[in-house]
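REQUEST
  id: r-88c1
  op: predict_structure
  target: Btb/poz domain-containing protein 19-like
  payload:
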Amino acid sequence: MSSKFWAELSNDYEKLFETEIGYDVVIYAGEEPNVKEIHAHSNILCIRSKYFRNAFSNAWAEKNDGKFILRKPNISPYLFNIILMFIYCGNIELKNLQGSDVLKLLIAVDELNIKQLISHIQEYLIEHQTEFLYQNATGILETVYQHETLTDLWNFCLEKICKEPKILFDSDKFINLKAPLLELLLKRDNLNMKEIEIWEGLLKWCLFQQNMENNPTKWSNDDVIRIKRSLYRFIPLIRFYDIEPTDFFYKVYIYKEILQKDLIHDLLEFHIVPNIKPKTNIAPPRNPNLNFIIDSTLTQSNHIPLFASWIDKKGSSYYNNKNIPYDFKLLYHSGRDGFNAESFHQNCDNKGATIWVAKIQELIGGYNPLDWNGNGIWKSTTDSFMFSFTDGKNISTAKLGYVEKPDNAIYCANNQGPHMGYFYCKGDNKWINYSNSTNYPDIGTIPTQLSVDYYKVFQIIKK
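RESPONSE
  id: r-88c1
  status: 200
  body:
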């Protein structure tokens, strides 16, 4: 018989923190004149945080009279005490904090690498400080951009700005926006602005960066070269073919000197010649009602970098949402396109690598690095895999299995949906799992026969 006394243990550690018995760490938190000296115990800090473990083992912290000395002017004494209370006894209370303080606390725990709190505080902000996030979406986005682990908050603010972009484009902060962040926004398919407004905003940003006035007739050759260099990375992101002819003539064509001659020629031809089609592949019109893939019910914000990491076999060295080397383009949705093999192949054949995700009580799915076209043939690969999530919202519940018999990795047939090893979808939502003869390791308890709520297939496109 075992007994657990977590509350008593937590209280004892809280008393240890408060009484400071045997402390060997001195932390100076806050900036002058509000610096406060806080005492702690190195053993406890090391166990609970990799940051402190590295600080003490690598002698980042100075040492004086046998005590480690840490100086953290960027974290207020009040917030540092909250963090230490969590480290010692696992307790944290956020409801009495203002939204700005919760954000500062999140940045601090990210710096100190306290992973349990990173997820908890992000969830709290999104669920209980929505108004604060909406009012400060731009500033928060810029702040979070510097912290790779804060993906949930990053995606929340990014979606808010895409839905209501004028809170950024009409603000004083826009002209000072960092170039990589602006580039990321202009890539979004669901940026809810007219294309001409996006173009005008980009020009406004560029001319401020170059300290120039918006008058092409006064630009010198050197001015034109400077502007072209500044806009080089952004021009391909503007969907010029979606700009109305009148706006193109008065608001784009007058800047022809800073645009490529081939682009101007093709756009003039497109607007003047009846029924002419663009000569190059162009991005589809932006769709403000498009739910970005990471907010899909089948793919949460932290699934996408995980999928990309599995594709590249990165092991535990995962990508984050800012360095994913692939785009995930939705090809097929059973609820939208029809739950039949014909529709699956119409949408997914000859598209190269894809990943499919199906919803039952859990999430299951697989990666096909080849394609789905062909009828009655096995395809060989060593890179395919299958996966499952017992809890779709918790990536720690994932089970992953790479193919073990490459010659029978992928099967293509016109009367079937996804077919990997001996797990496959018949066209009428009957899924078969011959687990005793599978080509993939066990990815969980999946019935021999099942139906799914719905499933999606995404094309994997190298950026």
